[in-house]
Amino acid sequence: MATKKKYVYYFGDGRADGRGDMKDLLGGKGAGLAEMTRLGIPVPAGFTITTEACIEFFDNKKSYPKGMWEEALAALKRVEKSIGCGFGDPKSPLLVSVRSGAKASMPGMMDTVLNLGLNDQTVLGLIEKSKNERFGYDAYRRFISMFGSVVMGVKRDKFEKALEEKKLQLRARLDTDLPAEALKEMVQTYKKIVLNETGRNFPEDPIEQLRLGINAVFNSWFGQRAMTYRRLNNIPDTWGTAVSVVAMVFGNLGETSGTGVAFTRDPSTGERRFFGEFLFNAQGEDVVAGIRTPLPIDALKQKLPKAYRDLMAVYKKLEKHYKDMLDIEFTIQEGKLYMLQTRVGKRTAAAAMRIAVEMAKEKLITKETALLRIDPVQLDQLLHPMIDPKAKVRIIAKGLPASPGAAIGKVVFTAEEAQHMAERHERVILVRTETSPEDIGGMHAAEGIVTARGGMTSHAAVVARGMGKCCVAGCGALHIDEERKFFTVGDVTVKEGDYITLNGSTGEVILGQVDLIQPEMSGSFKTLMGWADAARKLNVRANADTPHDARVAREFGAEGIGLCRTEHMFFEGDRIKAVREMILADTLEGRKRALAKLLPMQKGDFIGIFREMKGLPVTIRLLDPPLHEFLPQTEEDLEELSREMGIHVDLLRAKNRSLHEFNPMLGHRGCRLGITFPEIYEMQAQAIFEAACELAQEKLKVIPEVMIPLVAHIKELSEMKALCVRTAEEVMARYKKKISYTIGTMIELPRAALVADQIAREAEFFSFGTNDLTQTTFGLSRDDAGRFLPDYVHKGILDQDPFVAIDQEGVGLLMKMGVEKGRSARPGMKIGICGEHGGEPSSVEFCHRIGLNYVSCSPFRVPIARLAAAQAMVRGKMKGKDGGHRATV
Ligand code: PEP
Ligand code: MG
After folding, report:
1. Nearest CA to ligand 1 atom 8
2. In a 3-state reduction of DSSP, which class is residue 542?
3. Could you tell me which of 26, 70, 28, 64 has the C-alpha nearest to residue 47?
4. Is 167 exposed, middle or buried (0-12, 13-18, 19+ CB in 10 A)?
5. Of 432, 507, 602, 780, which one has the greatest count of Cβ atoms within 10 A?
6. Cβ of 858 below 6 Å from ligand 1
7. Is residue 80 helix, strand or coil?
8. Is residue 629 in contact with ligand 1, taking CB distance under 6 Å?
């Protein structure tokens, strides 16, 4: 015979049917109450009706599952026995609270009723027992208004209005100024309101009240507030809510009573100190309502020392048991402490870090658990300035949170203006429809960047992340008039020179200046990162294009450069002129003349980067973007260039036209440029190896890894590799130096992944360019997707933006195939990733699982990747396999 399903779990007097690990069935609150009872902590007796009962209630067209009600009544009897009062007993009435509680905390989203069990008779018993008439009628009128609104659907303000009228009539300022007689009258007034509004009498039968109360809490699971919260937080409807019915204890029975909330450690700093607030002579709702200012918990120490000592003992016991920082709620009734709730407390990133490290040092948790306690993404909060959480802000628009941190500045609309103003020590925010490589200087000068178009891997997003600069991308609500230098959003107009503030962690654009708080990399941060480094297998490199970025990357713990994009070097200072000269030249000789001017500058860059990286590997990618990106786009700029170079403007226009491509991302770029113009790649290889040889002369170690982009066919790679090898050998012979180097390729096109075994015959390493690989696998432009991808995520077609987190089923399958095929042809081949996904935790875990050697990401995301790599390892071990490779970097 099947065992009967249990719908009701009792707790009281040190015994509980449930346990702390039964959150699915009892909800967070029910599980916490059961566990505290088992631990011998004082909790008022009660019972929890399961989430399963809630789901079956809805399945059964809102009738209780068979046996549930009888179980509840039996549990109620046990509560009566434990408390020594009777439910509905006019002499010694038991009152209960009926509380919701789902598996995940949904603060304030569902309903609760307090003081249930009161009627015209039991209120007299309550007064008799408390010897306090005012308290009795106050509890009763509060109950009618709460039950009337939550259960019977009367608008709350009807009750509030009646109370205000009474206060006015008696010239009472606060509710507490109303005498017992007035509250007694309010009970009658409230009952009339209920009758008028619903056509029904207020139910006097406590059992009927209980039944209606339980129904109301069940029903609140599908209330508007709860449904919206679930949608926003990805909580499924199928979880249901549990209902806890708990004997009431009163914090408002006079000056030896009260109620409070506390954290077992400081939730903002993580300091190991009990941190709480308390109100004497008050009920829980008074603390939350914020009408009276709560006192620090120390106030309790002087006035109620016994309760204070008990509370200290309880919190220590709870923390030791749960091995985490907890948030607790308690009530003191006439000097006696009762715990009403406990759950793992929310905390800031800094606090999370400190708590995890200190708890591991206190041997409460292991180092592995400490590592898993931190959400890697939270680390961002510690590395960038943030908006002061106490600041009042006026948000005018929201775009994509493209690069975290916060920035304040005056609005400018062009890169040149950004640079001009920055030179005058003004802080600026660069506002553009979208950015292009030409804007690099202005982006560098700005505090932050906003674009109206573009997604998470748009130019602005990628470059800003690389610079560690705050960026909001794809903020479609901004209507930017770059010509007339203003933007509008709704009815707000922001002109050049007006201040705005950006929150790159949330995508918010805020009007005016807001207070920021600066990051602090505390001792705990360093300790935890040290543990992460010891735990992980995956190496972490950075994407860095300048000596400055390389230094930042090393400071953040990068173990090499996984991607140095050489095109960014082409825009600096005077070089753009030489680049344009090269593009405009019609003959090989002309191009070579221009390239000869670029050679020393490029070599200088590489020397700077190699020096900063102090013998760590540096992967340098040869030129990737289509050439037209280097030519001026506006008429004004064309004319200026024509004057500078002494070339007729018509000729320039014609050149621009000839370079125009319908789909440049799939056009003449990557190694396709090297195939057509081998002299460009030759110059770059020469610069790399001359730089390496010159440093070798100084006895500095360098490890260059030359990377060929956008390879689809083995022959593209063999030709470009031969060119690089020839150049390297020639340079090394000239310098009489031997440098060990490798030549590899990016895997960023589906075809390359499909024929990775062929490509691995030539490539000495692979690096997955998952930005382009995602773009080409989905056939989805990375620069335009920002406009409509949010709809896909919102509608649940995609769980996440695939440009943010690797699409493991599709793009990930190609990567897996690339790894397997690559290593089948070249066993033990070093393989990494340098797309933006390299700094996103779920993608890092995926890279660990498929056996990559390293991930490479923007310098500011290096700590995130280090922690995510450690977590991947710890989780893998827990599942019984460690996966991943650790090779030489
Ligand atoms: C990529 O495609 O993933 C990559 C790293 O190259 P880029 O973003 O420069 O195209
Ligand atoms: Mg690419």
Report:
1. 771
2. strand
3. 26
4. middle
5. 432
6. no
7. helix
8. no
For 385-439, the pLDDT digits (tens) are: 888 888 889 999 999 888 888 999 999 999 999 999 988 889 999 999 988 877 8
pLDDT digits (tens, 9 = 90+) for 63-105: 999 999 999 999 999 999 999 999 999 999 999 999 999 998 7
377-379-382-387 Cα dihedral, nearest 10 degrees: 10
Residue 271: CB partners within 8 Å, gap ≥ 6?
Answer: 265, 354
Residue 834 annotated to the active site: yes
Cα angle 792-798-802, degrees, rounded to a multiple of 5: 100
- Do residues 407 and 392 lie in contact, with contact meaning Cβ atoms separated by under 8 Å? no
Q: What percent of the chain is modeled with pLDDT above 90? A: 70
Measured CA to CA, the distance from residue 665 to residue 720 in angstroms comes to 20
Selection from 810, 824, 883, 798 nearest residue 849 by Cα: 883
Nearest to 213 by CA among 100, 105, 103: 100
Neighbours of 269 (CB within 10 A): 16
385-517, CATH topology level:
Glucose Oxidase; domain 1 (3.50.30)
Residue type, 115: N
Report the DSSP beta bridge partners of residue 330: 260, 339
What's this model's pTM, rounded to 2 decimal places? 0.80
| Separation of CA 710 and ligand 2 centre (Å) | 7
Give residue limits of the domains in the chain: 249-346, 347-375, 385-517, 523-626+661-878
* Assigned CATH for 523-626+661-878: 3.20.20.60
Contact 23/235 with Cβ under 8 angstroms? no
Task: Give me the catalytic one of 54, 85, 384, 459.
Answer: 459
Q: Give whole-number Cα distances, 334 to 82, 130, 254, 280, in Å.
A: 18, 10, 7, 11
For ligand 1, mutation pick of 567, 623, 746, 855 (most atoms within 8 Å of CB): 746
Q: Which atom of ligand 1 is nearest to the CA of 543?
A: 5
Average pLDDT over residues 595-608: 95
Phi, psi of 442 (to 5 degrees): -65, -35
The three-point CA angle 89-90-96 to 5° equals 55
Cα 636 from Cα 868, distance rounded (Å): 48
What's the CATH code, domain 249-346? 3.30.470.20
Is residue 660 annotated as part of the catalytic site, yes or no? no
- 405 carries a ligand binding annotation: no
Ligand 2 geometric centre to CA of 731 (Å) = 28
pLDDT at 784 exceeding the cut of 50: yes
803: closest CA among 845, 839, 842, 771?
Answer: 771
